[in-house]
Amino acid sequence: xxxxxxxxxxxxxxxxxxxxxxxxxxxxxxxxxxxxxxxxxxxxxxxxxxxxxxxxxxxxxxxxxxxxxxxxxxxxxxxxxxxxxxxxxxxxxxxxxxxxxxxxxxxxxxxxxxxxxxxxxxxxxxxxxxxxxxxxxxxxxxxxxxxxxxxxxxxxxxxxxxxxxxxxxxxxxxxxxxxxxxxxxxxxxxxxxxxxxxxxxxxxxxxxxxxxxxxxxxxxxxxxxxxxxxxxxxxxxxxxxxxxxxxxxxxxxxxxxxxxxxxxxxxxxxxxxxxxxxxxxxxxxxxxxxxxxxxxxxxxxxxxxxxxxxxxxxxxxxxxxxxxxxxxxxxxxxxxxxxxxxxxxxxxxxxxxxxxxxxxxxxxxxxxxxxxxx
Length: 374
Known about the structure:
By secondary structure, the protein is mainly alpha-helical. It has 14 helices and four strands.
C-alpha cells in the first residue's frame, strides 16, 4: 500500500491544496508588488503575479509531511527545498544578485547532504557499482545546484516548467515505487499533483507565474528525488534514468550556457537562445511550443520507463532479442523526435528568417506587444 495507494493520495491532496491556495497567492503577490510587468523583453502583455510557487510549496508539503516517516534524508531534503523556495520568493519580491542566489543555493543543498542524502556510489551499465568516497559531497551539491538552475532557466513560458516537472516527477514516482523507494515515490507523486493543479492557472494564457520561488523549489525536489528514488538503488541503470528523464531541460540549458560563454556573456544574462524562444522565432504559438516540449519530454520519460520495465535481459544477463528490439524501437523514436525538433529549430528558422524580420518590424512599429522572452 505504501508504494501504490499513498503516492496517489499524496498527488490528489497536493492538487487540491494548490487549487485552493493559488488564487490567494495571486492576491498576495499583487499586495506585495511581486508582479511581472509587460516590457519589450517579455512574452505576456499584461501584469501577471509571480508568487504562484508559494501555493506549489504548501500544496506539496501538506501530504508529504503527513505521510513521510522521520527519515533524516527525506526531512533534510524537504528542509532544504523550503529554504531554497524562500530564497526564490525573496528574489521575486526584492530582487537578488545572481552570485547571492548561487551562494544561497549551495547552502540549501548542503542541508540534505549533511542529513545523509548523497550520491555515494554510481552504478553504470556493464561496469557495476563503485563508491565515490569523499567526492560524494561536492558532487551531490553540484547536482542540486545544477538541477535547480536548469528548471529555473526552463521557466520562460506559460506552463512550461510546471508541465516538464510534472511529467518528470510522475516518471520518478513510478520508477521509485517499482524499486520499493516509498519516500521518494510519495514526494514525486505529490510534486506531480501540485504541478498538474498549478497548470490550471499557469497554462497559456497564464494568470500567475510560479516565480523563482516555485521553479527553484521544483528543481531542488527533482534533484533530491532522483537521488533517493533512483540513484541510490543497485539497478544497473540507476545513473542513466534521471539523465534521460531530465534530458530536455539539461540539453536546453547546456546549449544556452555554451552559447553565452562562446560570445563572452555572463551565464545568467538574459537572451533568446532557449528552445522555447527558438520555437517562437519560427512562428509557433506558445501553446504549440509548450505542447511540443511536453511531447518531447514525455517521449524521453517513456524511454526511461521502458529501460526500467522492459525485460531486455534475463536473470543471467543474456539479451532477449524481442524485448531488446522493442527497447531499441522506443530509443529510436526518442532520437528521431530529438533530431526532428533540432532540425526545426536550427534549420527551418533560417528559411523563415524573412518572416521573422517582418514580425520584428511590426513589433517595433507597435503592432505587436510581445517579444519572445519572459
